[in-house]
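Trying the structure run again after the queue cleared.
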Amino acid sequence: MNYDSPYVILGTETVADLQIAMSRHPAGLFLDMTTLKAILRAYMNGQLSDDSLLQLAEFLEMNEGVSVPSIESRAINDILFSVANPEINFPNTIEKMQSLLGMSPYSDSL
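Done. Tokens:
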């Protein structure tokens, strides 16, 4: 395993998993929009609890060791800020995730 390159976040990790990955990868972590969408969909499908989603979003938002593709950085940062700060950006709900993903709340496809 190449520890000189960033660890690519898969979307299935816990905060503890990501902390371990950061300690092993001096180049930090890498998050792209596809993975962030997978995390939001896991929440929408009930595979990720409210607390777990909040912890992940807070960890990813506040961590300078997380890199994102420059073309996606604004959108990723906006979504992470919204999810990590429900007290100022409305509570995290399925409808909010649908909105962040640009999905119709009446869509059956998650």
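Helices lie at 15-24, 33-44, 50-62, 73-84, 86-89, 94-100. Worth checking whether this holds up in the mutant runs.
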